[in-house]
Amino acid sequence: MIKDKKVIRDILEQSEKFFHTKEDDEQIETTFEVVEKLQKIHPSSIVCRYDGNDLIGHVSILPTSKDLMNKFINKEINEKKLFELTIPQERYEAIYLLAAVVEPKYQKNGIATEMLLEAIKGVPLLKNPVLFYWPFTKSGEKLAQKVASILKMTLEGRKNIFE
User: Are 125 and 87 in contact (CB under 8 A)?
Assistant: First the structure.
């Protein structure tokens, strides 16, 4: 669990720089309250890496239910609603790959894969859990496929926004 306010601020700034959530009502906002709820849902929901004092990357996942996953995949609810409806549980049946951001000079070194695996492996799961995602880039799609393959988990995706 991340408690350091500077670290949280760095993560929020990095997320906003990449995802522009303030300009999109469909996405989960980048706020301290969101970070707090994510970590209440599960403490390993956010993982980050630093190089000295510089944040080089972070990932966020949202453990949730298959019912909410299906509603999101089928566009019955948006990302913000998925987050609002998700509640803490003892075990989860689905994990939304919410965000994976690595600064350009650190990309292509497996950092995002490593962080996602760490986050997901920390979550207590029910039998046959599913990963799901909404890729913003082709590299995000490849990352989701790689992580699902490593974990031998089913992967579901919402329509790519870059198509």
Answer: no
Print the domain residue range for 136.
Answer: 5-157
For tokens 């990302």, name the residue: 79
User: Is residue 148 one of the residues assigned to a domain?
Assistant: yes
CATH for 75:
3.40.630.30
What does each of the 163 residues of the chain score in pLDDT, given as a tens digit? 888 889 888 888 888 787 766 776 777 778 889 889 999 999 999 999 999 999 999 999 999 999 999 999 999 999 999 999 999 999 999 999 999 999 999 999 999 999 999 999 999 999 999 999 988 788 889 999 999 999 999 999 987 654 4
State the residue for tokens 């709820």: 37
Determine, yes or no, domain membership for 163: no
Taking the model in full, what pTM does it have?
0.90
C-alpha to C-alpha distance for 56 and 111, rounded to whole angstroms: 9
Q: Directed axis angle between helix 32-41 and helix 5-19, to 10°?
A: 100
